[in-house]
Design a protein that fits this description.
By secondary structure, the protein is of the alpha/beta class. The chain has a single domain, classed as Spore Coat Polysaccharide Biosynthesis Protein SpsA, Chain A, CATH 3.90.550.10. It is 39% helix and 15% strand. Strands 3-2-1-4-6-5-7 form a seven-stranded mixed beta sheet, with helices on both faces. α6 packs parallel to α9.
Length: 252
């Protein structure tokens, strides 16, 4: 707990058995009250390992629902469990769990309702081994997105994110895509709804066991990001009305 607020870490997993335990062991307990693992139909023993190391809440998708579908299951479960501060941490050990206290402090003290771990601030991306083509694409996409959505972030593509309960209840994340572009749709919704976003410098690690998408998937993701940003611009200008920007239905 942090000042009476329940802290939940959610782990979107796919074939994460090689790095899950190392990631879990660095989560700062007892600051974190609950951990939820969602195994998106992994081909390895991710779920079994999660139970072995003591993760209490494990969701297992029998068919692969995609990265976005994985997050939907996690956020809905976190809200069901009464989470006030929810941190998404990749269990592939690419992002350090040691930044969780800083993220919790920022949200828990009502400074910002959203905190992103940025690999770009402080040159953490290249230092951590990010491929140059991904770094360049990141910078170009981020510049374009800042212009279209009328915001300013150092990057929109980090997988290290934390949210207040109000944010998760205030955006329609269940209407988003089930693939990797989910992350950008979520940020677009957050910005459109008027929530402020903080960034903290985050070191990152690229290594064989860390998850990464290939060039073809990266290109598809980039096109999806541009689609989301243009849609955001048109919505902001009042030229279209998109389902994803509607307020979610309240669960009674």
């Amino acid at each position: 707990m942090y000042k009476g607020k329940k802290v939940i870490v959610v782990l979107p997993a796919y074939n994460a058995a090689l790095t899950l335990e190392k990631t879990y062991n660095e989560i700062p307990f007892p600051l974190v009250d609950e951990v939820i693992l969602c195994d998106d139909a992994s081909k390895d023993n991710t779920s079994e390992l999660g139970r072995k190391i003591g993760i209490q809440h494990i969701i297992r998708h029998e068919t692969n629902k995609g990265y976005g579908g994985n997050q939907k299951s996690l956020y809905n479960k976190a809200l069901e469990l009464g989470g006030d501060i929810v941190i998404m941490l990749h269990p592939d050990y690419q992002y350090t769990p040691m930044l969780i206290p800083a993220m919790v402090n920022i949200i828990g003290d009502d400074l910002y309702p959203v905190v992103l771990g940025s690999r770009i601030l402080g040159k953490g991306a290249l230092k951590g081994g990010m491929p140059m083509y991904k770094y360049i694409a990141n910078r170009l996409l981020t510049f374009t997105q800042n212009m279209l959505v009328n915001y300013k972030l150092s990057e929109y593509h980090t997988g290290y994110r934390s949210f207040s309960r109000d944010v998760l209840e205030g955006i329609n994340f269940n209407a988003n895509d089930d693939d990797f572009v989910f992350d950008n749709e979520m940020l677009s919704q957050i910005i459109y709804a008027g929530y402020d976003i903080a960034e903290v410098t985050c070191p990152t690690k690229y290594f064989d066991e860390a998850s990464s998408i290939n060039f073809q998937r990266s290109a598809k993701y980039g096109i999806g990001v541009l689609r989301v940003s243009v849609g955001h611009f048109l919505q902001r200008m009042g030229l279209v009305k998109m389902e994803m920007y509607k307020e979610p239905k309240k669960v009674k």
